[in-house]
Amino acid sequence: MKRGYILLTLLVLFAYQSFAPVQCFAFETRRVVLVGPVDTARYQSKEINKIIQDSWKRVFRYPFYEVTAEIRSMEKPMNKAALEKLTRDQDADIVVATEIVRLHDITYNRGFWDDETWQEIDLLLTVKTYVRDNKQYQAFSVRRWQSEPLSINSGAAPLISDAMEEVLLKASFKRVPQEL
C-alpha cells in the first residue's frame, strides 16, 4: 500500500513538472517575418520555395522565435527601406528576405555524336535581413554554378539547398538568442 502512495506521489510530481512553466525559458520570444523567396529571376517552382522556407524554419523555431507572417508573393527586390517598413507594419523584431536574383537553367546536347543531355545551372541567391532592436541591415549573396549530365538528381533544387546551407552558416541568427 505504501508503494502505491509513493508511485502516485511521483506521478503527480511528474505531471506538475510537465505542465509548469520552465524557469530557464524566461525570455522574450522574438517575432520574425519571412519574405520570399522574392523571385526576380521569374523562375516559378513550388519545390524551390519549399526548400527555402523549410531552411529558414529550421533556424527560427519556437520558443526562441515566432514566425508571425510569411509573405511569398513579392516580385520586387527588397531594400533596407522596404524591410524597415515591413518591420513597422508587421510589428516584427526581425525581417528576413530571400531573393532569387538569377537562375538560368539550360539543357543541351554536347555534340553531334554525343547523345547525352547536359544541364547547366547558374544561381545567384541574395539574403537580406533587418533587426529592429539595433537597426542592423545585412545583405549577402551566394552564387552557385554547375554543369553536369541530366539525371534525376540534377536540377536547381540541389543547388538551392546547398546555397541555403551556406546562407544559414552566414546568418547571424542561431537557435538560441545571444541574450541568454
TrEMBL record:
Keywords: Signal. It comes from the Bacteria. Residues 1-20 form the signal peptide. This is Penicillin-binding protein activator LpoB. It comes from Anaerosporomusa subterranea.
